[in-house]
Amino acid sequence: MLFAAALVAASPAAAQDEGGGFGEGLDLLGEGSRMILERLLEDMRPMLDSARPFFEEELMPLLERLGEVVDDLSYYDLPERLPNGDILIRRSPDAPPWGEAPLPEVGEGGEVEL
Question: What is the pLDDT of residues 57-90, one digit of tens each?
């Protein structure tokens, strides 16, 4: 973080001295940020690698199944835990009938506005 603060403080002055202007200072700031993020990712890689089996074996199947039975999360109330431990996700009373929700428009390039 100290490196980032020094880079921020030095970038405008260095850019003015070299005649590069504000754009060069932003480029230097971007490069410094990229270096910090790369180092952070490098430091986190062992933790991410150890968590990968959980995501692949447990979380992804859960999310895939949830995607099959839920059409649009905005049509549902917040989950609630029942006394027996079950989790209930109720459909909002003002939601359209299940399966009849309008699909988002897909643009020419495959873009979907969220």
Answer: 888 988 888 888 888 888 899 999 999 999 999 9
| Residue 4 CB contacts under 8 Å (≥ 6 apart), including other chains | 32, 33, 36
- Tokens describing residue 20: 């590069």
CA distances from 95 to 71, 102, 113 (A): 11, 11, 20
| Encoded tokens for 77 | 């109330």
To the question of pTM greater than 0.90 for the whole model, the response is no
Which residue bears the tokens 């428009």?
105
Amino acid at 30: G
Tokens representing 36 are: 């910090």
The model's pLDDT over 3-48, given as tens digits with 9 standing for 90+, comes to 555 555 555 554 455 556 788 888 889 999 999 999 999 999 999 8
For residue 34, give the DSSP letter: H
At a CB cut-off of 8 Å and minimum separation 6, what does 30 contact?
Answer: none
